[in-house]
Amino acid sequence: MKKITITENAARKVKLWLALLCAISLLSLAPGLRAQENAGKIHGHVQDPTGAPMKGGTVSLSQDGGKTAKYSFTTDDNGNYTGEGIAPGTYMGVYRNPDTPADKMVDQISEVKITAGGDTAQDFDMTRPEYVSKLTPEQRKQLEQIKSKNAEVMKENVQIKNLNADLAKARDDNKNKNYTDAESLMSRDAQAKPDASVIWVELGRAQYGLKKNDDAVTSLKKAIELESASKKPNPDVIAAANDTLGEVYAAAGKIPDAQSAYEAAATADPKNAGMHFTNEAIMMDRSNQGDATVAAADKAIAADPNRPLPYYLKGKALVQKATVDPKGNYVVPPGCMEAYQKYLDLAPNGPFAPEVKQILQTMGSKVSGTYKAGKKS
To answer: Structurally, how many domains does the chain consist of?
Structure first.
């Protein structure tokens, strides 16, 4: 086979052709590269006459009075826009909303200058006097009404923010038994915003802590009344007010009123009915109302059978009715030992476990679980 070789002269010719092709390619790319290097950018913010950001609109750059757009950019949710790859020059900036007809404009900026390699900042601020002055009298009237309403909303938002901070402090004060501070703070806020039901709840709690029961009842009823009459009543607020009202009534010896209040709390907040009825059982126990304690405990158990405390309170109320038969044996009401035993099952190391174990042993009942009652002597 004949060996093919390239002479030195031929090689030089090939190199020359390759260099020529490379130069032609670079020349053809040069205008695009130069245009890219010389392109400018733009960015800005668009807001309406009330100062609200304009989202989803279009900012266009035109060189024929806005008829056609050479470049267009969309505003984001914050009313901001950016654009790049713009040929240097002077343009008319035009803003249109998504529903603005093609032959109409919402706003325009007559001279927007784009420089090579620069980033032009151009806002469309429709709160500027020259824009507002072009509005019709009716439009200016509507604008003032909107501004006034927005100012009221902003003022109310600031007030709500301050009230929430006060509420948080009052709750801490009530929790830490600083009732005087909580009462002073909530009394002031109740005057500033008398329609806020949550303020009256915390005020009632503070007044109850100070043993001002009548004032507490008035405040808590006010909270219930306000919240019940609102467009969207908050069941948590109504339940909290009724729960505290039940405690106030029970402390004052008004048992039927207390029972009604706790029932109302559970009705308003059924998911936490077990908690409300447990609170009722606690207050009935403190008031030495045995039958009422058992009734409340039974309701708490029915609502949430896994709460240990109602079983203990029920057993405690029933054991007080224990008697001794002629043979010297304790006779306890039905359900007493079962309630105590259930408490131990649910809370074997609970705060009342030692007491319950002792009672079960004394009454001669076998204690299940890890604890075993001793033999009767």
So the answer is: 2
